[in-house]
């Protein structure tokens, strides 16, 4: 059993069960379904940009670590045999080798994955409050790297609350400003044409009209079906009466490739009639006749065709979604098992459906553009409708291209290379067109692509994208299962919020790596090279069962942690006001200030950590050239990262005053450390 939502059915037979409900049994499946499902199995779970970076860094660190391990081993073996063996102190030599190898082992930043995971988990929790449910943790970081967003139109850029506002019935164009006025507005409609119109609206639909507990009519179904049913009711039609007058014997659900749906009715007076509705230019191409102003069925001549085409274009240019309604009388002997006809129809009329753009979408698209993110609209609607909506949203610009799916899929590889970067709107697209566009953007142009979708047919593109964004309200289960993030309010503005959270961690991947190296690798190297002093022999030995972290260490760790946490929290919460930051770069500058402050907190904490209990931590510091070299290199590279590696490290150059404040905050950790050492434990 299948439902009317399944867009891949070639045809189906609709029969009534004992309860009077309709069931659709599958007669055939489109070959396109096989192609679409094949795309889901292509490739595997791709690594996120952060994972790629971390893997690259891990490889480099591994090679460097291996190199120094070999050098250290060679030097120590030479020293062991030339010096220690002659004195007979092999144990001391082995202990020294262990110390050197310990430094090499510590060089691997194993704490970085944990730091990244904690940062992403925090972002994931916050995004839930902003109407975005993250299904895969890595999606938080990936969205922050997105360079392209391929967005649906209906329900994402628009409100998905549709109403019929214009129509061309019996060749007459009328504007429907209010549903309550429709009955009087169409009072001159020929009775025969009105009967056919209502029969088409109420039977060729996946929606329903029910009576709720308050005794009022409630319309159920997709937004498109709801709009048409509301239009039919406003004309004075009765849904239940119309459905009982004719018997549904076959249903062909809406197909995203054919862009239409159809039904076959068994009429009360005998005979079969097929109704179809769908994309105006596609359904109109199947028509041979039309109902004229007098309600007569006449051949569709060139003048009538031109009139209808101009009407469709006019509706579309007003950002209206257009649907054409048509019917055909079936010859005697036609079997319901046969596919619904694809020609010979009579055009009943064309309706223009308004789907308003969501508030805030235009501003969100502008934010994306200023952030270096290209937004592209991919829709199944008429190209003029798509262009009108895209211009209203700020997606289509003067130098952009709007193209239809059939034209896009005819392009060869060379043509696609020059065309794809300019495509801002793709109309009348099939699921494979969307998948192809996303795949080329990712593989050929090395872009990080986010894709929105709500239907079953969007699953291949959602799977192919670096990050799939499914609609939480209108989305099907198949779309949700293929997505990384669920947009709970189906709003494009929420997608921008997701991208903002992906970029908003105070320390980015490069910064986290640098901090980790300072605290782990370089810190271990600097402190492990401290030469022993005479005061060590004044302390008692460390006993076998003594705690690894002593009370003295706990005191210093907790004290410094509290200070650094307070500082970073204040900068994160109040930094913009404290430093008087304003403008589009204020967020990057604030993150750079936080990053710089945190780094210098670690630099001065390394100095304080030379002695766990002594106040004078500078004693003998110049004698340890490795320690001085490590600190000097750290400061030098920090200056380079902040001032010159802006795009790579996500930093912004700081003023002298900002440098002084951040360094001073880091330096304050030293007197705090000295004060902590006076606390007896």
Automatic annotation (TrEMBL):
The keyword Chaperone does not apply. The chain crosses the membrane at residues 60-81, 101-123, 552-571, 586-604, 625-645, 657-676. Residues 505-678 form the Cation-transporting P-type ATPase C-terminal domain. Its EC number is 7.2.2.10. It is a multi-pass membrane protein. Its main location: membrane. Pfam families: Cation_ATPase, Cation_ATPase_C, Hydrolase_3. GO terms for molecular function: ATP binding; ATP hydrolysis activity; calmodulin binding; metal ion binding; P-type calcium transporter activity. InterPro entries: ATPase_P-typ_cation-transptr_C (IPR006068), ATPase_P-typ_cyto_dom_N (IPR023299), ATPase_P-typ_P_site (IPR018303), ATPase_P-typ_TM_dom_sf (IPR023298), HAD-like_sf (IPR036412), HAD_sf (IPR023214), P-type_ATPase_IIB (IPR006408), P_typ_ATPase (IPR001757). It catalyses: Ca(2+)(in) + ATP + H2O = Ca(2+)(out) + ADP + phosphate + H(+). Catalyzes the hydrolysis of ATP coupled with the transport of calcium. This is Calcium-transporting ATPase. It comes from Prunus yedoensis var. nudiflora.
């Amino acid at each position: 059993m299948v439902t009317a939502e399944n867009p891949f059915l070639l045809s189906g037979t609709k029969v009534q069960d004992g309860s009077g409900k309709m069931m659709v049994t599958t007669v055939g499946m489109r070959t396109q379904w096989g192609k679409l499902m094949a795309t889901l199995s292509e490739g595997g779970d791709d690594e996120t940009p952060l994972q790629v970076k971390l893997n690259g860094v891990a490889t480099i660190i591994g090679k460097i670590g291996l190199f120094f391990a070999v050098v250290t081993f060679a030097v120590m073996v030479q020293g062991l045999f030339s010096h220690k063996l002659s004195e007979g102190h092999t144990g001391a030599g082995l202990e020294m080798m262990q110390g050197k190898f310990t430094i090499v082992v510590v060089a691997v930043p194993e704490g970085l994955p944990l730091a990244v995971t904690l940062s992403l988990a925090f972002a994931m929790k916050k995004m839930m409050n902003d109407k975005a449910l993250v299904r895969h943790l890595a999606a938080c970081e990936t969205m922050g790297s997105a360079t392209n967003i391929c967005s649906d139109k209906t329900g994402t850029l628009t409100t998905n609350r549709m109403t019929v506002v214009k129509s061309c019935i019996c060749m007459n164009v009328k504007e429907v400003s209010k549903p309550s006025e429709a009955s009087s507005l169409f009072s001159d409609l020929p009775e025969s044409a009105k009967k056919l119109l209502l029969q088409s609206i109420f039977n060729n639909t996946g929606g329903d009209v029910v009576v709720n507990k308050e005794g009022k009519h409630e319309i159920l179904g997709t937004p498109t079906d709801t709009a048409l049913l509301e239009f039919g009711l406003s004309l004075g039609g009765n849904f239940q009466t119309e459905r009982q007058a004719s018997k549904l014997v076959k249903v062909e659900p809406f197909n995203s490739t054919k862009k239409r749906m159809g039904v076959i009715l068994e009429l009360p007076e005998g005979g079969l009639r097929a109704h179809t509705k769908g994309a105006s230019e596609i359904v109109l191409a199947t028509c041979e006749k039309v109902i004229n102003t007098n309600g007569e069925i006449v051949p569709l001549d060139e003048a009538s065709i031109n009139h209808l085409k101009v009407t469709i274009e006019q509706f579309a240019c007003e950002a209206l979604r257009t649907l054409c309604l048509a019917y055909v009388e079936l010859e005697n002997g036609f079997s319901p098992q046969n596919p619904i006809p694809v020609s010979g129809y009579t055009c009943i009329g064309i309706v223009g459906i308004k789907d308003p753009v969501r508030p805030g979408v235009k501003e969100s698209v502008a934010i994306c553009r200023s952030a270096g993110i290209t937004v592209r609209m991919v829709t199944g609607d008429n190209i003029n409708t798509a262009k009108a909506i895209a211009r209203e949203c700020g997606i289509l610009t003067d130098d952009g291209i709007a193209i239809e799916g059939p034209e896009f899929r005819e392009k060869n590889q060379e043509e696609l290379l020059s065309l794809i970067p300019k495509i801002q709107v793709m109309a009348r697209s099939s699921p494979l067109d969307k998948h192809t566009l996303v795949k080329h953007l990712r593989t050929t142009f090395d872009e990080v692509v986010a894709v929105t979708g709500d239907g079953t047919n969007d699953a291949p593109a959602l799977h192919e994208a670096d990050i799939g964004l499914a609609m939480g309200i209108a989305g099907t289960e198949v779309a949700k299962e293929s997505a990384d993030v669920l947009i709970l309010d189906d709003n494009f503005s929420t997608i921008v919020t997701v991208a903002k959270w992906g970029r908003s961690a105070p320390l980015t991947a490069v910064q986290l790596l640098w901090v980790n190296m300072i605290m782990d690798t370089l810190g271990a190297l600097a402190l492990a090279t401290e030469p022993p002093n005479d005061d060590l022999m004044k302390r008692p030995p460390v006993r076998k069962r003594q705690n690894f972290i002593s009370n003295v260490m706990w005191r210093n760790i907790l004290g410094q942690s509290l200070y650094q946490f307070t500082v970073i929290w204040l900068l994160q919460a109040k930094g913009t006001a404290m430093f008087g930051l304003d403008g589009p770069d204020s967020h990057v500058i604030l993150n750079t200030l936080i990053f710089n402050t945190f780094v210098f907190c670690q630099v001065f904490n390394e100095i304080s950590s030379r002695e766990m209990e002594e106040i004078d931590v500078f004693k003998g510091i110049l004698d340890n050239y490795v320690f001085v070299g490590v600190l000097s290199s750290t400061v030098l590279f920090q200056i380079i990262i902040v001032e010159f590696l802006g795009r790579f490290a996500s930093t912004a150059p700081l003023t002298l005053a900002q440098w002084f404040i951040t360094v001073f905050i880091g330096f304050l950790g030293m007197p705090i450390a000295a004060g902590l050492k006076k606390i007896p434990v």
